[in-house]
Design brief:
By secondary structure, this protein is of the alpha+beta class. Among the domains are: about 80 residues, no CATH class; about 230 residues, no CATH class. About 50% of the residues lie in helices and about 10% in strands. The strands form two sheets. Strands 3, 4, 5, 6, 7, 8, 9 and 10 form an eight-stranded mixed beta sheet that branches. A two-stranded antiparallel ribbon has the order 1-2.
């Protein structure tokens, strides 16, 4: 087949059409005789052609009813997968060398260990393509031969030292002296430099006694066990995402934000915000990753204060703050400003009107015979629709914008979750669902804000941790990255994405800003709770 005058993409499509529909070439050729390197030697864009074959042609060959076509697909998959994966590892290691010169010593060591894990993954990946040996057999064989590197962290040492100090200070009776002494000897052996596991390679069977107790390092780690484990496949996907980053944020120290986050995130055992390149400023472990000057740079111009330039709104809020009864509040509401009369203009006066309407609705809730503030009933729908429902009308003055309620998929979340799918027919489009979105409608649909709700406010509940720490932050990150992807970083200094989470009478605002690269900065405002009585209504004005 002549390739003259055709791009590699067009030629690959022709090859795909001919080979899959007619099958003449592959039916006459033994799969072992198929020379993939020679086959693609004439392509102008070999990478794109290989990508088409890897994502489209090979899966169709493997799923073909024709036996020879299946053999060809399996042969190509086996030959290309390990080679492509090895190239990714080499490229990732080259990127890591830059980090090794600038990141702290312990971070560099962790990063090097992470790539050893990736190499183990490559080895297991190649073994999986061996047709004769079963997966169970491979796992059983490799279990005794595989070795792991166990690192005793400074945190673990400090905790053990504290435990020893506590045991020395605690009075003991004669019966327990022997047991305590044995425990202290064990702890001393753990802290003995000669027995330090750092940098040593030991067999897995021998390492179990050292590795298992580290699961209980701190309460902070235990609190985050609600997240899924960070598997080898996740680690590879994380490395692939890291390699695709083009515009990185340079810190005053010369390091890149994305490099520091990758070095720390690649060794985590559970999923975390680091794997989405999100800097959670409330997380002390994230703060410790950066030098002082770098952290100052990250926090600079991240002030969440909002200036109130409407004097009429400011005066109304001041009056409401001093009101101590329903009558005083009703008197304020009855003195509506002239702006809300014949001269009303929605583009200029809507915020003032929204304030009066919202307070009027809340006063009805405060004065009705049934008190939702003291009831122990499950009132999730009531709080969302009646109390926090005032948020649904907050953006009526913005053209082509509406608050979308109910469990629905976020646009950016759906695009991220389905970007690797070759066609909609192969898989139903899916994404993370949320209780509400602020969405603009025009030539394209875009999300700007996301909302999550709960039955009640419980920061220690698993639902709160999952949605406030994980789900809401990632949706905000998707929105922020989508809105700032094609913008000049210098124009994004004041751009923010917001997320709201509420439970009962309590609401919390999350704010995310862009650094200009692939990373974002997440901050949480303090939770705000509505006053439980009309006499304390002024506490609602902040």
């Amino acid at each position: 087949m002549s390739k003259q005058g055709k791009s590699s993409l067009e030629y690959a499509i022709e090859v795909l059409t001919k080979d899959l529909q007619n099958g003449d070439y592959f039916r006459q050729t033994n799969p072992r005789d198929f020379d993939a390197e020679r086959y693609f030697a004439g392509f102008q864009d070999q990478r794109k052609a290989r990508s088409i074959w890897s994502s489209t042609v090979i899966p169709r060959l493997i799923s073909s009813n024709h036996g020879e076509l299946r053999k060809v697909g399996l042969a190509l998959q086996k030959k290309w997968a390990s080679k492509s994966y090895r190239k990714q590892l080499d490229k990732a290691r080259a990127q890591a060398e830059v980090v090794l010169d600038s990141v702290h010593k312990h971070q560099a060591r962790i990063l090097d260990h992470s790539y050893k894990d990736l190499c183990h993954t490559l080895q297991r990946r190649e073994e999986s393509f061996t047709e004769v040996v079963s997966t169970t057999s491979i796992a059983n064989t490799s279990c005794h031969d595989r070795v792991e590197t166990v690192t005793m962290t400074q945190e673990r040492k400090k905790k053990a030292q504290v435990d020893i100090a506590v045991r020395f200070d605690t009075p003991t009776n004669g019966a327990s002296d022997k047991n305590d002494s044995a425990g202290l000897d064990k702890d001393r052996a753990t802290l003995d430099p000669e027995n330090d596991a750092e940098g040593k390679t030991i067999k897995k069977d021998d390492a179990l006694t050292v590795v298992e107790p580290e699961i209980e390092e701190t309460e902070d780690i235990e609190d985050r066990f609600f997240l899924e484990p960070f598997t080898e496949q996740d680690r590879k996907a994380f490395a692939d995402t890291f390699l695709k980053i083009q515009n990185k944020v340079v810190l005053p120290s010369g390091n890149h934000v994305e490099d520091v986050l990758f070095a720390a995130g690649v060794t985590k055992k559970q999923h975390g915000l680091l794997h989405s390149f999100i800097i959670d400023v409330d997380d002390d472990s994230v703060r410790e990753l950066f030098q002082e000057d770098d952290w100052t740079f990250i926090m600079k111009e991240r002030d969440m204060a909002v200036d109130l330039d409407d004097q009429d709104i400011a005066k109304t809020l001041s009056a409401l703050k001093d009101a101590e009864c329903a009558e005083a509040i009703m008197e304020i509401l009855n003195q509506r400003h002239l702006r809300l009369g014949k001269t009303y203009r929605m583009g200029y006066d809507y915020n003032l009107k929204w304030l009066f309407d919202s307070v009027s609705k809340w006063i009805d809730i405060y004065t009705m015979p049934f008190s939702v503030f003291t009831s122990d009933a499950t009132l999730e729908y009531f709080w969302r629709s009646q109390v926090w429902g005032v948020l649904d009308t907050l953006f009526y003055d913005i053209p082509n914008t509406l608050m979308i309620g109910g469990e629905g998929h976020g646009i950016e979340s759906k695009e991220r979750r389905n970007q690797q799918q070759p066609g909609r027919a192969l898989r139903k489009a899916a994404g993370s669902k949320s209780d509400g979105y602020l969405r603009s409608f025009g030539s394209t649909k875009s999300d700007w804000l996301t909302i999550e709700g709960a039955r009640n406010w419980d920061p220690f509940a698993k639902k709160y941790k999952m949605e406030a720490y994980w789900k809401l932050a990632r949706q905000m990150h998707d929105i922020c990255r989508a809105r700032t992807a094609d913008q000049d970083p210098s124009t994004l200094k004041n751009f923010r994405t917001y997320g709201l989470i509420f439970g009962g009478p309590t609401i919390q605002i999350h704010v995310m800003s862009s650094l200009g690269g692939a990373s974002t900065v997440l901050r949480r405002r303090r939770p705000l709770t509505l006053a439980d009585g009309i006499e304390s209504f002024g506490e609602n004005v902040v």
